[in-house]
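help with this record:
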Amino acid sequence: MYSLALCLLFLLLHPVDAIFCFNCTSTEGYNCSTAQQKCSFLVNSCITIARDEDTGTQDVENPVYEKKCNSDDRLCNQFYGLVAGDFRMRWNSSCCRADRCNIEEITVQKASQNRNGVRCNSCFAHGTDFCRNKTEIACTGLMTHCIHFVTRAKKETFSDQQVAFTGCATKNLCDMGAVALFAAGRNVEVTTNMCSFAPGIVSRHSLVWSFLVGLLILNICF
């Protein structure tokens, strides 16, 4: 307690200078603007984001690039991927910790068509805390987990901020990304955040190991 008081006193007597970050949003490319923003004292990094979100039956690439001040390290240097219902998201980011440092080129990671053996129920709904699992989809690439995520508005007036989805996700979206992207800074609370490897899915390594164990048992017994 005494150490904490000393730290707070030091910050009051020696305030940390706020950093400046480039601030813009564009669909034309990562180098979208030279506009700057002075960040609050709570911000410790600048972030550049390249994200591609779309809905519908056609997977059309339409990336959006964003630069801004960042106060959530869960968003730094990540690739988040999600396919749920007719919603698809690929989200890349890069962070740095100096004035006007978020100039690095960043692109959206290409969608993988390689199936990884995991299958998940799939649905997506916005503005509600419920979605019905109507389909099952085959996961691809780094989306090796099945996620079930739901938020509920703290007040009825914020119901449009609710989201509910089930589908294929990257592991880090399960670990922290879903909360950071779909709940943080919104007037909602997370009511469900569950992930799994999809029960019943057997990896290639497991199959090889089972085969070797079987051979060993046969040699011992016969």
In short: The chain is about 20% helix and 40% strand. The first helix runs from residue 2 to 13. Residues 85 and 153 are 21 Å apart (CA to CA). The two ends are 69 Å apart (CA to CA).
